Amino acid sequence: MRITRSIVPNLFTLANLFSGFSAIILTSEGKFKEAAVFILIAGIFDMLDGVMARLTKSTSELGVELDSLCDAVSFGVAPAFMLYKVEFYDVPTYGILLAALPALAGVFRLARFNAQLSSLEDKLYFTGMPIPAGALTIVSYIVFFHAGEAGQILSNWGMVGNSKSIVLGSVTIAVSLAMVSRIKYDNMPRPSVRSIKRNPVKFLFFIAGVIAGVITKGVSVFPFMMIYIIAGALRQGIVWIQARNNRDEDEELE
């Protein structure tokens, strides 16, 4: 095997896969918080492999395909398995299918992204919510609201038993639909002067989310991700309405 500089980013990508596999093992042992940490670590490696590929100027189609395969495990299978172990194992008939939705939607989205990939440069927007964002949304809800200490909030609202299952199912379906949708979602801003100048509002929103996540010890991550999902859908709706109004005006002029 010929060793090239592309081995550097590929090692980070494989570290992403190893982290996802570790998360699955920990989930099988009922250690959901620890599993969530490894999914987060997988996300860090997923970000760093792209950074390393640009630094070493070794971006390639092989790297893109390898990244997608690893993402499918770390951000598709691992969160889906966690859903099953936490709640959906006890849901008759549809439990396995419901738990599998994020994996199915995420893999479809990755395949669509690769099929439509025309350039290896960073994009400002993604069509459909990125699979790492989907995993972060689901896992943050499970750990901090469904099965964690913050789940007491739901209990105080009278949401226990079947009610909590319905909420978790709704979150699962919403995230899965967001991933396979045609809605444009923002790419994560890069920590560079050019990126900050190009879109300072997006960068400040991202930094605010990170700071809030640290201060609240992760509890604010799920609300932050829901804002991300809803904001993308609202923006897409506004664009669609404007485009429709423009078409109507053009037809009237004719």
Please name the fourth-level CATH homologous superfamily: CDP-alcohol phosphotransferase transmembrane (TM) domain
Radius of gyration: 19 Å
Oligomer state equals single chain
Catalogue the unreliable spans: none
What do these coordinates show?
With 254 residues, this protein is mainly α. The chain has one domain (7-253): Up-down Bundle (Four Helix Bundle (Hemerythrin (Met), subunit A)), CATH 1.20.120. 75% of the residues lie in helices and 2% in strands. The protein has helices at residues 7-28, 32-55, 61-86, 95-116, 131-146, 151-156, 162-180, 193-198, 200-215, 221-253, and strands at residues 125-127, 184-186. Strands 1-2 form a two-stranded antiparallel sheet. α1 packs parallel to α3 and α2 runs antiparallel to α5 (131-146).
Blueprint of the fold:
Elements: H1 7-28, H2 32-55, H3 61-86, H4 95-116, E1 125-127, H5 131-146, H6 151-156, H7 162-180, E2 184-186, H8 193-198, H9 200-215, H10 221-253
Antiparallel strand pairs: 1-2
Comma- or semicolon-separated keywords:
2 strands; two-stranded antiparallel sheet; single chain; Four Helix Bundle (Hemerythrin (Met), subunit A); 254 residues
Entry summary:
The protein has 254 residues and is mainly α. Helices cover 75% and strands 2% of the residues.
